Amino acid sequence: MPKTSQAAGLHRASLAKLHDLDAALELMYYGWRGMTLEADDYLARQGLSRPHHRILYVVARRPDIAIGALIEILGISKQALNRPLNLLLERKLLTSKRSPEQHRSKLLRLTAAGHRIEQRASDHERKVMRQAFERAGASGTAAWMAVMEAIADNN
Amino acid sequence: MPKTSQAAGLHRASLAKLHDLDAALELMYYGWRGMTLEADDYLARQGLSRPHHRILYVVARRPDIAIGALIEILGISKQALNRPLNLLLERKLLTSKRSPEQHRSKLLRLTAAGHRIEQRASDHERKVMRQAFERAGASGTAAWMAVMEAIADNN
DNA sequence: GTTCTCATGTCAACTATATTGACTTGAGAA
DNA sequence: TTCTCAAGTCAATATAGTTGACATGAGAAC
């Protein structure tokens, strides 16, 4: 696990702008950093990191999800999922049980402790977003979401 | 180097929303992915990846930057910079020379080939942003930037 | 009832990106 | 001549991911 994460390169560096859209590229970069910084620090103090949070986040929103479906959503291989998932099971932040009828797949659920950590980590991120949206007002928030959807759906 | 990057977990996954701000968290995640996807594919075809692009991006905007200053801006350790930087020098995408007076530090510059790759990779990202901004109009763009600045500056 | 399929689990080897710590080198300054 | 400081290098470690190969165990098909 990483130490506490040095506030690294947070400058919003004073780089010359070669293109008018350079500011937008940098805002995406530093925006992602800004949103995840405190959450990552919190997770590191729990001995966890971003992949663990992604697992907790998805399972919280899809209780009784099977492992195959989780792999699909996370977009990583079974083997890559294995380690962080087992850590979460060992730490009893997740439980896995086979369903009575579909005995083939294992169903994942958060424990109370898992819910608590997922919530606190996500709360750090939501706090950042809430403050930004408060300053921007309802129309600014709607505009932000519209732009982000256009960017996200650029597949 | 990674292969071609499987379009992984691109679902904009249909997860139940536990909080009203969950959509915003997911938009940040998929937005970052959407912006960087094509650029990363292009870079992978050149045998490069995101850290190499970050180096090229910064040096393009700060010609004659010293290695220490670059480390500062990137927020990584000297040792972590070493490998990708040496690759870029070997490939002659960067040049390093000592300055006449300040002979202690090395000054980095892009070669023509380095400029070309930096530009093409960044162009993929700018293209995504430009399309999103065109749909959103000038006021939507301004609102997006204001929100992102608030998020980024949450340090 | 044996065989086929399929979800899951696990082992090994590899790559990439990062870290810290300990050192060297070489130039400039005191 | 010694001290400082930027840069370079080596080793060990952690994390996050990959592919390939193979085991297990349950359900379904024949």
TrEMBL record, chains A, B:
SMART domains: HTH_MARR
InterPro entries associated with the record: HTH_MarR-typ (IPR000835), MarR/SlyA-like (IPR039422), WH-like_DNA-bd_sf (IPR036388), WH_DNA-bd_sf (IPR036390)
Pfam family, one: MarR_2
Residues in HTH marR-type domain copies: 18-153
Leader sequence segment: none
BP GO annotations: response to stress
PROSITE patterns, per the entry: HTH_MARR_2
An example molecular function term from Gene Ontology annotations: DNA binding
UniProt keyword list: DNA-binding
Family matches, as PANTHER family: TRANSCRIPTIONAL REGULATOR, MARR FAMILY (PTHR33164), TRANSCRIPTIONAL REGULATORY PROTEIN (PTHR33164:SF44)
The protein's name: DNA-binding MarR family transcriptional regulator
Organism of this sequence: Bradyrhizobium huanghuaihaiense
